[in-house]
């Protein structure tokens, strides 16, 4: 037989295969033949995996019995046959056996006390009833339930002592404590919660709940507790099924336990009822599947419990499989959603990084372009300023000017320039001459004074900074422009000066000083 190819399955078949393997943890290649035999019905395949496949194929039998049916009738018969072959046989549940949550909102316990006249009238019946219940207790099931409840209400309720009302969980703990105080150490695994919470836990975990109701006013109560409830056989049974049964007990003198007895249709004490979830008519309700009223031996109680649990075990197993399938589907969807969210987050992060990188590149490009433009504008302003300042410099004083000062300047290029300046000329004029010397020299060489271009204006919003200082070497004296003054005041009658460039380190040293 060829190995099945998963890639050839339809999307619905692949989804069914994924759900089935998530629940059963079976190899996908080995799971495909079972799903094919189950007509790709996941529930039927899961039930066959856990319970085993039937010895005969219900589909083949249906086809053999109805060879002349139409294709549509054959398809319907196949589906019904498959369901019939996998659906467990479950006894029908009486609507009256459905168990609902009891009302525990009342803070006080309701006590019914008949009047003295009615109690006096029913005294003979009380005596007769006590005798009959003792003698005919084995035949108690023949007495209608409403008569039993009526006699209990008229006879026993009048002498029932009032008990302090407690919350449901405290009532249960009090019941367990009283049981231990009266009959010795109690090793039964009673749930220390209210009945409603125990019922909800049993429904949530798909377990059985065994409710035990006791009435201390009944004569059979003490015997049943010692010989049945606390027997080693019943304890062994509970230990064997500890993962399947939630044991809950109550005293009917407490409000909650009394309401539970009414909900479970208790007719005789002591009373035990087994409750589990049923799925009749498409609804999921908790219903009573076994009642044990009156005195029963430990063997009888264990036998009833075992029979009831066995008859409903398949139903709970199917419900657990369905829940596991739903949980697997839900987990798969969550994983897919989580993977999608992670992938989406990664895509968003990559898009964000790309956007940030693009913005950073655009910003760097824009800053570089602006810097280049600023440098270009600065160079243009410097060139224009030099042209303007060179034109605005006064001519060199002639021989007729007696206070002219002769200054020798060594330029950064190594050339030595000698020029006269008026004594009252500002020191900035000396700096401007040095700054514009290259333009002045070029202009003197190329043009005559008559042909020089005039009218160059000073650049707007520009303040020129001299990037050099004039220094007298021997002794070293720095003629800083910031101190101002005239050439005659600062330099004297003559001087040999050196043009010393200002570096960035020099600027930092000046700032530190």
TrEMBL record:
It comes from the Eukaryota. Residues 400-479 form the UBX domain. One of its GO terms (biological process) is ERAD pathway. It holds the Pfam family UBA_4. SMART domains: UAS (SM00594), UBX (SM00166). One of its GO terms (molecular function) is ubiquitin binding. The keyword Coiled coil applies. Keywords: Coiled coil. This is UBX domain-containing protein. It comes from Exophiala bonariae. The lineage of its organism: Eukaryota, Fungi, Dikarya, Ascomycota, Pezizomycotina.
